[in-house]
Amino acid sequence: MARPRLLDDEERLVARAQGGDTRAFERLYRHYAPAIFAQVLVPMLGHRADAQDCLRDTFLAAHGALRKFSWTKAGIWPWLKTTAKNKARDLLRASGRRQRLRGAYLEHLETAAGPDADTVQQRLFRADLRAQIDARFEEMNPRYARVLRLRLLEDRSRDECAALLEITLGALDVLMYRAVRAFRKAWEQHAANDASPPTPPHKAATP
Amino acid sequence: MSEPTPPQRGVVDDGWERELTAGQEAAGEHGDLDADLAMLHLLRHARAPEALGEDALEEVLGQVRAASAPASTPWWRHRLVRWVAVPACAGLAVALIVRPGEGDRATVAATAADAEHAATESAAKEPTASPGVFAEATPPAREGAPAAKPYELQFAALEGEARASLRDAVLNSRTEARHEWLASLGARTLPDEDASTTPGRGGGR
After folding, report:
1. Do B89 and B56 share a domain, yes or no?
2. Which region holds residue A41: left if phi is over 0, alpha if psi is between -120 and 50, else beta?
3. Which domain, by its residues, includes B32?
């Protein structure tokens, strides 16, 4: 899942929405909101309810500022994405950044995708992300890599994981905890070895 | 890696944090788990991103609609509210509350006017019947009680009529007694004088 595809009649839809056509705006919303939520807001905020609130604020701001949008060949997606990021930053500033960043992982995604912030969202679901994850697994203790694959990537239940690894549920919890910590260290080590540090995001001229 | 299927638990589900915390406690360790939790979220996201869901999609759209509704409300709805609904509500309120109150006040005012008129007529009937004595007995109207004033006037008018009747009765009795007294005197000194003019007497005595 890369960036959402451009709608066939997107330019006309945007023009109609700019003229006050609520149906056109709602069609744009239904097409882009799931991707804004999953690819931008949840990774940035690490919290589902916050991401949902921010999605609402994003499209409210977009509704109010749509007349200022100038059409480009890339469509409305980059403009919506930047608006969403700005709203997420506003939310983080307003509510206490430390607390809100709990579990946020956009930084790790940017590390995986490289310094080009414009292509980050396009690469989130591409094979190179999984390839990087597999590469880190290869560097880890095989038992750690196996429990992460079983539990987090293959979505197996705790009972099933414990049975496959021939351990108790309590031991599975400890193994998971240590495996996640080991994976984090491997990921961060790889990022530190990377020559190009991630570019800090800047607020664009969007609502 | 296998193809992603709908996950049992979302990317940022609270259960992942509980699982990590349980493992940390079982390992006998302490400390901040935020960074580890973020990495776990990354792995879950790589498997399948957090889905918004149809219900949540529509819920957020409803919130956006509600918040942006004033700008997109058709003009005739505003006018309908302004020129029809508000006056109708106001008229209804007047019909239910204000008019009955006015009717009560009108009834009281009419009663008071009638009473005042009767009092005036009564006073005109008796210009010489020692008004000072009865006037002093009339209670003065209290100030600061406008609602009580019509009733006070009505009472004064009725009181005046009753006093006029009493005065009539007293005067009649007095006149009758005087005539009787004069008649008794005349019977002794002037037997033929004024025997037919005494009221209620006739000429038989």
Report:
1. no
2. alpha
3. 14-68
Q: What CA–CA distance (Å, rounded) separates B40 from B22? A: 15
Q: Is residue B205 part of a domain?
A: no
What ipTM describes this predicted complex?
0.84
Residue B46 within a domain = yes
Whole-angstrom distance, CA of residue A106 vs CA of residue A185 = 17
B-chain residues within 8 Å CB-CB of A63? 64, 68
pTM of the model: 0.60
Q: Write out chain A's pLDDT in tens, 207 residues.
A: 457 888 989 999 999 999 999 999 999 999 999 999 998 999 999 999 999 999 999 999 999 999 999 999 999 999 999 999 999 999 888 877 655 577 888 878 777 665 454 555 555 555 678 888 999 999 999 999 999 999 999 999 999 999 999 999 999 999 999 999 999 999 998 888 875 544 544 444 455
| Degrees, nearest 5: CA angle B131-B137-B141 | 105
Name the one residue in this structure whose structure tokens are 């009473």.
B115
Gap between the Cα atoms of B71 and B61, Å rounded: 16
Give residue-wise pLDDT tens across range A127-141.
Answer: 678 888 999 999 999
Closest-CA residue of chain A to B6: A155
Q: Which residue from A68, A70, A61, A69 is spatially nearest to A29, judged by alpha carbons?
A: A61
Domains of chain A, earliest start first:
10-100 (1.10.1740.10), 110-114+123-193 (1.10.10.10)
Kindly report the nearest CA distance between residue B29 and chain A, in angstroms.
Answer: 10
Owner of token pair 């956006």: B64
Record: contact B36-A178, CB cut-off 8 A:
no
Out of B35, B47, B64, closest to residue A152 by CB:
B47
Judged on CB neighbours under 10 Å (0-12, 13-18, 19+), B200 is exposed
Show residues of chain A in contact with B2, CB under 8 Å: 153-154
